[in-house]
Amino acid sequence: MTKTISGIAASDGIAAAKAYLLVQPDLSFEKKMVSDVDGEVAKLKSALEVSDSELSTIRDKAVESLGEEEAQVFDAHKMILADPEFTGAVEQKIKDDSVSAEQALDEVSKQFITLFESMVDNPYMQERAADVRDVSKRVMSHLLGVTLPNPALIDEEVIIVAEDLTPSDTAQLNKKYVKGFVTDIGGRTAHSAIMARSLEIPAIVGTNVVTKEVIEGQSVIIDGNDGDFILDPSDADLVKYNKMAADFAAQKAEWEKLKNEETRTADGKQFDIAANIGTPKDLDGVLANGAEGIGLYRTEFLYMDSAELPDEDSQFEAYKTVLEGMNGKPVVVRTMDIGGDKHLPYMPLPDEMNPFLGYRAIRISLDKQDIFRTQLRALLRASVYGSLRIMFPMIATIQEFNDAKAIFEEEKKNLIAEGTKVSDNIQVGMMIEIPAAAILADQFAKVVDFFSIGTNDLIQYTMAADRGNEHVSYLYQPYNPSILRLVKNVIEASHKEGKWTGMCGEAAGDPIMVPLLLGMGLDEFSMSATSVLKVRSLMKKLDTTKLVDLVDQAVNVSLTNDDNEKLVTDYMNKI
User: How many degrees, rounded to 5, is the angle at CA 480 between CA 478 and CA 484?
Assistant: First the structure.
């Protein structure tokens, strides 16, 4: 029977395919003594062989989609399976204690994990703990006869159904086969949702129940425009949504006519619409959608897609590729923004009560300067291949910015002294994500070259509401007067010092926010590449001279988020 599940529309588009459940299976087992020890040993050896074969397949797929370097993690996993110290210990435990293969694997793997994690003076060996954990989970799944989901093995068109998707999960999705995804938790500004927009696939988040309602292989339709997920659609549903998909494609075709046009408002003012990217692979989408630059290059995916810290040369190649690919158009690169919900398996971070407010972004870079300096050197070397702008994330104080800028200047001098060519026209700016920085923007504007407002975190911190928590998603209020006042303050402060302000948060592509931001004088709008042409089309209809009064009304403290949404909607309906 047809059923519709509603969630938060996170990425536009409509698709129909089979459901693929990306959920972790139950790997619990009952502890018990066994009489057939030889049978348990045979079961173990079979599970090891199947796991090894599976890892070979996954590795081959990873080489195709991610490259040789990223696929090397699976070589490490295969080495553990071939290590007689590990597998031999499991087999010996079965024989000595007459326990099941599951129990022996569980106990031995925990011993190895504890041993590796205790090697605090040897980061390489500490990293092996995560490998043992992953390999043991795979072998355990085969002992129990359950299937571990793995997106790398998908070879047919599917729609992913998951409780949530980590940024690294989403970065590995192959859009050739993955036509969309739906999750139980998350909000529109969760990183999985942002990556879906970069991949140009429809997404719905925050359904609460989708993993409990969907069966593997079930026929489904995802409507990322309205947030509806249809299970077992009828023939009439398929006809209806196919027409909607065709209409959406026709609308996109109209927007594509603006690909090579400048972004100008009805009164002739020019603005820049840039795109946000996560990897050099996203360049195709940026160019296909006619973006006038890259307003946010999320470099953390270089770290998250690697089995170890990326070295200077590999980073240099990535930055060079992006700068050359943009043919002189500006590229704003954000330095490593790890922490919060973005973790590196090879660089354990401390457990924190509030990781989004903790040890992350520039705080890690200033603390672990060897990592920071490596990234800055790679960026400086690449700077001669295009128009590079660097920004530091999560800046709370002027001292933090000055310290980061001083390290940048040191590495620039070092490279020049080594005879390496470096551009003499690199702008260095900062993200405005923390309310303290937005309030003090007039002082920051004296020392930076530019601001880029990250509305996703600015709203999260101003409203004290976790951006990925569906229970407080109602507090994601970009039109709230408090947010609008902070944004207006930042723009005005930069202009007084002759500097420019961009916005790389999701609000930059929001059709309600765009008229308000134009009225405030925002210089650069950076968004998912798929939103560029839609926003360019919208701006052509707007007269900035008539938007100033709209902004004055919107920042009135008596108005609510909903009031401002209605205010702008009513205004747009009259155009």
Answer: 75
Percent of the chain past pLDDT 70, that is, above it, reads 95
In Å, how far from its chain's centre is CA 11?
A: 13
Judge whether 184 and 8 are in contact, CB under 8 Å: no
Per-residue confidence (pLDDT) for residue 67, from 0 to 100: 63
Looking at residue 511, its amino acid is P
Average pLDDT over residues 536-558: 94
> For residue 206, is pLDDT > 70?
yes
All domains in the chain, ordered by first residue: 3-23+151-252 (3.50.30.10), 37-144 (1.10.274.10), 258-573 (3.20.20.60)
Give the confidence band of 410 by pLDDT, cuts at 50, 70, 90: very high
Query: Which residues fall within 8 angstroms of residue 477, CB to CB, at 6 or more apart?
Result: 459, 463, 483, 561
Confidence tier at 65 by pLDDT (50, 70, 90):
low
**Which residue bears the tokens 């903790």?**
358
Task: Please spell the DSSP secondary structure of 280-296, one letter per residue.
Answer: GGGHHHHHHTT-SSEEE
Bridge partners, 3 (sequence order) = 231
Distance of CA 463 to the CA centre of its chain: 22
* Active site amino acids: 191, 504
* Separation between Cα atoms, residue 439 and residue 437, nearest integer Å: 5
CA angle 224, 227, 232 (to 5 degrees): 90
Structure tokens at 68: 């040789």
| Tokens found for residue 418 | 């080594």
End-to-end C-alpha distance for the chain, whole angstroms: 44
For position 176, what pLDDT does the model report? 87
Nearest to 571 by CA among 553, 555, 557: 553
On whether the CB atoms of residues 506 and 188 are closer than 8 A, the answer is yes
